[in-house]
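for the writeup, i need someone to sanity check this before i put it in the appendix. the sequnce is what the collaborator sent (i think, or maybe the updated version? ugh). structure was predicted straight from it, no edits. if anything looks off just tell me and ill rerun, i have time this weekend
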Amino acid sequence: MMNSAISNLEKHKGDFWVTMIIWCLEIPINLYLWIATEDAFILHAPSASNIALCVGLYLVFLLGYLMFYRYQYVTPNKNRALIGLGVLALAWGSLSMMFFFKMVALMATIILAQLVRVVAFKWAIFVGLFIPIVAVSLDILLGKPTEYIPIILYSIINTLAILSSYRLVAELTAKNESLRLVRELTSAQILLSASTKRDERLRIARDLHDTLGHQLTALSLQLEVASHVEEKAKQAHIQQAQAISRSLLSSVRESVSQIRHEKDVELNALLTNLAKGIPGLVVKVNNQLVEAITDTRKVEVIYRCVQEGLTNISKHARAKNCVIKLSNDTNNVFISIKDDGKNSENIKEGNGLIGMKERVNSIDGQLEYSVSQKGFELNIQLPLN
């Protein structure tokens, strides 16, 4: 969890520090202009209570931004992020209505830059252009001279802020998708390499058994017959050759057995590579397999099911943590994928779950899932042999 939080902070620290700088500059500048100059359209005189109210609203704005930043980037929670954005808008609106500071417009730009991350692009543009219209309307209602050039510039700045933020979001999304594809490609390469090596080992094992093993067996039989010949001078040499041939035959059998039962696929490496670097999700692989899985087809089914499970979690579950557990008994392999997301209890099976069931059923396995307040759990059982 800590690594994921640090990663998100690194990606968005530019936004954070720009906002902090603007916020820190806003307060002293506006307070100075408020106290040093007289503006008939500012309804509140710069008294101690009004200054305290103004600073308080700025602090509420800061609180709203920190809340939005935390639940949007560090520990994602869409509902709380929207509440933080609402607090931002409320503080900005109160400052705008009560004090009419011109620089408060910069705070609205900050809100708009974040708005595009939680609503559709067209709605963010609409709000960005709607705010200047409201400002002009207020000027007209209050009888204040309308400054159209600043309003136009403000509209342009809003639009540019939204476009820049939208492009940044699109680039981060594309980057995350690219990283996901790289992880899957790397795992697929490992799987393909392991399958090729396994086929080659089986070919070598068959060749050893069919050729060298057969020849050594024939040699042993021939020497066994020769040992009964009454040529006592050759007896010691024949017995030695017989012992050597038996030793060679035993070595061949041992080699064949070792090649056949060698661990075919680094399943743990496959799953670890697949699970790392998923934005906003910490995945732990708990491999408790006592016996290595040598069937490449079973390994591929496990890999594809875990891959699809992680994809569903990252898209739909709003989870922070996921645990993948593998274990086995004498007859079966058990795979469990569990997250702590807030899932709907009425899950409709889509292509992902249907595809997993088909893969599991194709090798006589079973797939079950359950949903609760604690998250979503997927359980798969496959025959070991």
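The chain has three domains: 2-177, 201-261, 264-383. Residues 1-9 have pLDDT under 50 and may be disordered.
thx in advance!!
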